[in-house]
# Entry
Amino acid sequence: ITHGFVFLLFLLLVVYFYSPSLAIGTMFARSSLVAARSVARQLSTSSSNNAKVCVVGGAGGIGQPMSMLLKLNPAVTHVSVFDLVGAPGVAADLSHIDTPASVSGHGMTPKQFTGDDAIDNQAEFQAAAFDEALKDMDIVVIPAGVPRKPGMTRQDLFEVNATLNRDFATAVAKNCPNAMVAIISNPVNSTVPIFAEQMKKLGCYDPKKLFGVTTLDLVRARTFLAEATGVDVQTLKIPVIGGHAGASILPVLSQATPSVKDKITEQQVADLTNRIQNGGTEVVLAKAGAGSATLSMAKAGAEFCNSLIKALNGETVVECAYVESDVVPECAYFATPVKIGKNGIEENLGLGELDAFEQEKLTQAVAELLPSISEGVAFIQNN
# Structure
């Protein structure tokens, strides 16, 4: 067993004991299942069934509800749930849901982790379980990692989540190098470069198939703007560019469709931009240390996965995502709308026209992004 995987197991143990994001979450009420079915129907408009999806961190606060939404998606054929502890139980629960997708769980049960049946060589067991979970997957979505606590920035999470994502990249390279990979693990501004650089080291990097999931920023932008303007939230489309942390998040409200320019003041634009940028902090504070944005992130992650499934099944879709890019020359990675097809990104649609306020915010976004990207690249160079 490699030193890297032993260290990965150690980090996962830390995450398990100190974070609810990888521990086994609470059971869903029957009414939640009914609501989730409704969301899943909205997510999938494709009649094709041709996608196997692995959720890395599938027993956690984001992973459980997202795995359920994927199980309910008629375009999904298989959901592979992997986690340090609890994935087999989550998979058993999901497997009772009356939808066609099959489910498998990979990783230790609680008894295998610390109980009477505790496994002696847990690193070896987990390595084999992860290989099995990833084998021949079409899509790998990664919500695993330490969540934010009050007072923490996404950058505070760097050291632990950086190592996790480096080792996740190694496992993906070994078992499903052609899969589309959607990274949710924060800080996304750094974890995407980390994943990319590790895949480059291993000789199987495809920039067209690696995505940092920024969809939650779009979900928040639509929600908050609809509340402010009275526009039907289901009709709103708003690009959010830049990155996925604080000032790097730039909602381009001037490009909203339908147009809302006549419905909000300049002050409201500034206030909405600030709220969208700090939406994660709003949830962390509201939960008072008991967690971060999990349910909304699960919805956003499932929404993004559904777009990837449509692309795999031959549709051309447009999503905002944090990807390798030359749109902003000084930033090697940047979130913009991208056109995605069967083989990944087909075209980067760029920034579009920005107003004066957004141009100013773009400068701030770049300043926020540059050190995060550099830190991610340097981490792989030094490790």
About this structure: The chain is about 45% helix and 15% strand. Residues 13-34 have pLDDT under 50 and may be disordered. The longest strand covers residues 333-341.
